[in-house]
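agent: user wants the full assembly modeled, not chains individually. Plan: 1) parse entity lines 2) check alphabet per entity 3) run joint structure prediction 4) return tokens. Steps 1-2 passed, two entities, 274 residues total. Proceeding.
--- entities ---
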Amino acid sequence: MESKQITTKNIYYPPGGILLWIIIFLELFTFGMALVAMVIYSKDEPEVFHSSRLLLNTTFGIINTIFLLTSGFFMAKSVKSFKEDKYKKSSLYLKLTMLGGLFFLGLKSIEYYEKIEAGLSIGYNTFFSFYWMLTLFHVIHVVVGLVILSSVYFSMQKKGKSLELEDVEASAAFWHMCDLIWLLLFPIIYLIF
Amino acid sequence: MKNHLYFKVLLSLLALTMVAAMIVKFGFEFKVTTAIILALFMLKFLGVTFYFMELKRAHVFWKSVVIIFVMLFSIIILVGI
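--- prediction returned ---
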């Protein structure tokens, strides 16, 4: 079967487009620098960071990682199906991708609720200041990602063939960026300290 | 990319996540635990970028930048912790 292709070997067109990759690197650097700052602060209060890390629910962190990775898998399948002109399949995978994102947000809400109930708010200590700022900033990215994917989904329903592959790839790259940011956050916040 | 390859990558990523979570309970020395967790993180990060984001097909510049970023980040965290 003939499939759509974009020459991604071109330095100016990585999968998803150069502008999106610039955004991806800016985001990764921003989160990366914040995590480095968190590690530096932990040197001053190692006991506080360790005891605070133990207050987090690692199981929730693992399950959320599973949700995002599985969601990323369906996103990759959706792009592949779109390239092969299998729009129905692509649309189904896109729905599963969004479902993964919604599950992530649902579990994150439960986690936040538990923390607030326990009085572990943003001002509790340095660890929790970083925890809230970094995870909330990531949640905003997931919400924006879901809005972008919903827009692509509805365009796919209405237009089908007229939806450009570049648009689908760019939205997929944004969604995968949410995965990547979470992959940065999870080991540092939930496991290391 | 073949469909079953995506699935294999997903299974590997999930397995690496579980291993990283279990390593913490093994009671190794702090630096060793951190190094193992960061190594597993690097593999997951590269798995997502190279396979799910299809960076494997991209220009060598983009592959290099991603590898340099993930290595630098891991080294800085390991040294700083």
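agent: reporting back. Residues 18-192 of chain A form a domain with the Four Helix Bundle (Hemerythrin (Met), subunit A) fold (CATH 1.20.120.80). Chain A touches chain B at residues 8-11, 14-16, 21, 25, 28-29, 32, 35-36, 39-40, 42-43, 58, 62, 65-66, 69-70, 72-73, 75-77, 79-80, 172-173, 176, 179-180, 183-184, 186-188, 191-192 (CB under 8 Å).
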